[in-house]
Amino acid sequence: MERKRKEDYIIKGIVGSPGIVIGKARVVDRKKIDIFTYRLISETEAPSEEERFKYAVETSKEQCSRAKEDMLSQDAKDVVHIMDAHLLILEDRMLIDETIKRIREEKINVEWALEITMQKLLRAFKEIDDEYLSARDSDIGHVGKRIFRNLLGKKEENFVDLEEKIIVVAHDLSPADTVQMSKDKVIGFVTDIGGRTSHTAIIARALEIPAVVGLEKVTEAVEKGDSLVVDGTTGIVIINPSKAILNEYLEKKRVYESLEKELFKYKDLPAETPDGFRIKVVANIELIEEIPSVLKHGAEGIGLYRTEFLYLNRKELPSEEEQFRAYKGVVEELHPYSATIRTLDIGGDKFISRLELAKEMNPALGLRAIRFCLREVEIFKTQLRAILRASNFGKVKVIFPMISGVREILQTKEILEEVKNELKATGVPFDTGIKIGIMIEIPSAVTLADILAREVDFFSIGTNDLIQYSLAIDRVNEHVSYLYEPLHPAVLRLIKQVVDCGHNGGIKVGMCGEMAGEPLHIPILLGLGLDELSMNALSVLQVKKVIRSITHEESRQLLDHVMGLATASEIRSFMKAEMRMRFPMEFGK
Q1: Distance (Å, whole) CA 329 – CA 299
Q2: How far is the C-alpha of 248 from the C-alpha of 524, rounded, in Å?
Q3: In DSSP terms, which residues pair with 272 in a beta bridge?
Q4: Where are the extended beta strands (E) located within 247-384?
Q5: CATH code for 274-549?
Q6: What is each CA distance from 353 to 311, 357, 363, 371, in whole angstroms?
């Protein structure tokens, strides 16, 4: 990338962690490691290659253990699970055994053997049609790079003994790199690759270090000693800002920090409009370690607990006992709030354990979620037993994903009753009145919402998939992702239909997609009459502020106007103008 201007060179990336920082750049080499491939001359060389591999793996374990200790010492306990995940990968028999097997049988060097094994593991993750889960492939990549660096004798980057405050610029950063960043010295970081849900971004948010990721070629654009502005609220990085731009961002930084401080006054306040309309604001999580952040930001429970992480990156399926311990831990940690646990929401083709299932042309529309569970009933029943057992230790609701029609929910309820009867027969305690719900994320479920409402206790609208399936858009396809629009009139009409059907059927209706945590959408969602919004924990405070600043009557009037507009761009423009008027500090940009 050629520098177009010496000053004010702007690059746009992805928001990794919010905040605005200004400082000097330090470019770190974290690009792809060149792998030298060669065949061994004789069988006598294989043992020494195996020893090199085992030594590199053990060294990697020691480094990850030290990084874990650093996390604990920096009061980052809620992200310790990330290094635990890396340590588990380093223990994975598929990783170890397959690499050694290739060295022995194919007579190739350890680097080559490891590269083949790593690519096989990565392929198992990259096809997953879920942003949160597909981002987990970065952990396998980080572990692989760590082993490669140790094989090649490369030293770890030192972020501890720094003499001045810096902004780290890298192709990529592992969680171990990130956690070493003392907030006193490393004030921000920017990377070529990564996404909002990658573990490095999660750690940056936990440590409250502003970050912008996915900048593609920022390491080529930035030179040693350059000054940077990193705006983690918009995903913008400015190289060598002019005095005018610098002053502008110093003021933005002051305003942002003032607003952040002010938001925490909403932590213990209910999400209630001035005219008394109450809506429940809860959080989405996938790991128990996220709960401290959920409670810190004032969420009233968990509206979506993703359970897929228990099934991934392993050769064997998780046992009932392992799942029970995970669910029980969440329920107890969350007390006195409730947790809504979603049953497995991936297809069998994504397990590293080998299930005999045919390869599918389009897994997103194939054997996944409830479809997979209804075919693999024993896997489903194992999870249901674990969830029901956990319900004896706190408030639990269970939700089933990708329901497309009545037959599926009837089958699901039948299996659930079987599991309940089995537990009763063996004297295992559980909540006999446990509430069940379904995700509304397929257009057919919207059409049948009035009938489905008779079969369950609540709905939760999964807007991520509902938008994708309704508008025929692959949201991870860069060529059409611009069409992924939550404020599309068709999407708003679908949501309204679900809310109306649910309420007419006497059940509550929530939303757990990304749309629920976007402040711009909140007045519309209030007008639609949703009972619950579930979101990333960091969005809770700002959402509460919006809810407490607009009456329900005003939101219904806004909705009436919006529903009369013909395009998403018209709706978005109208809402931006409306929110700019009501919240000039936050939406004045």
Answers
A1: 18
A2: 32
A3: 278
A4: 280-285, 301-305, 338-342
A5: 3.20.20.60
A6: 9, 11, 17, 19
Torsion of CA 57, 62, 68, 72, to 10 degrees: 170
Amino acid type, 137: D
302 vs 42, residue with greater confidence:
302
Strand 227-231 and strand 236-239: pairing?
antiparallel
3-state SS assignment for residue 417: helix
What is the distance between the alpha carbons of residues 169 and 227, in angstroms, rounded to a whole number?
A: 11
Query: What is the share, in percent, of the chain residues with pLDDT greater than 70?
Result: 83
Distance CA 260, CA 375 (A): 48
- Cα–Cα distance list, 153 to 32, 59, 89, 148, 160 (Å): 15, 11, 21, 9, 20
- The tokens describing 386, both together, are 């674990």
* Cα 322 from Cα 325, distance rounded (Å): 5
354: pLDDT confidence band, cut at 50, 70 and 90? Answer: very low
Q: Which amino acid is at 532?
A: E
Q: What element of type H or E holds 432?
A: none
DSSP code string of 106-123: H-B-HHHHHHHHHHHHHH
Residues 536 and 282: beta-carbon distance below 8 Å: no
Q: Which positions are catalytic?
A: 199, 512
- Please tell me the least confidently modeled range out of 99-108, 144-153, 195-204: 195-204
Judge if the upstream peptide bond of residue 519 is cis by omega within 30 degrees of 0. no
The CA-to-CA distance between both ends of the chain, in Å, stands at 28
Q: Which residues contact 123 (CB under 8 A, 6 or more apart)?
A: none
Tokens of 405: 């029609």
**Which CATH class, in words, describes the domain spanning 9-30+157-240?**
alpha beta
Q: How far is CA 440 from the centre of its chain?
A: 20
Q: Which residues contact 152 (CB under 8 A, 6 or more apart)?
A: 33, 111
Domains 43-151 and 274-549 fall in the same CATH topology: no
pLDDT tier, 3 (very low <50, low <70, confident <90, very high otherwise): very low
Domain boundary assignment for the chain: 9-30+157-240, 43-151, 274-549
CB 236 within 8 A of CB 214: no
- Contacting residues for 586 by C-beta, under 8 A, at least 6 apart: 259, 519, 542, 579
Residues 26, 120: Cα–Cα separation, whole Å: 34
Pairing of strands 14-17, 211-213: antiparallel
CA dihedral 512, 517, 523, 525 (to 10 degrees): -10
Q: List all residues 6 or more positions away from 492 whose beta carbon is below 8 Å from its beta carbon.
A: 524, 528, 562, 563, 571
Could you count the other beta carbons within 10 Å of the beta carbon of residue 257? 12
Q: Is 577 exposed, middle or buried (0-12, 13-18, 19+ CB in 10 A)?
A: exposed
CATH of domain 43-151: 1.10.274.10
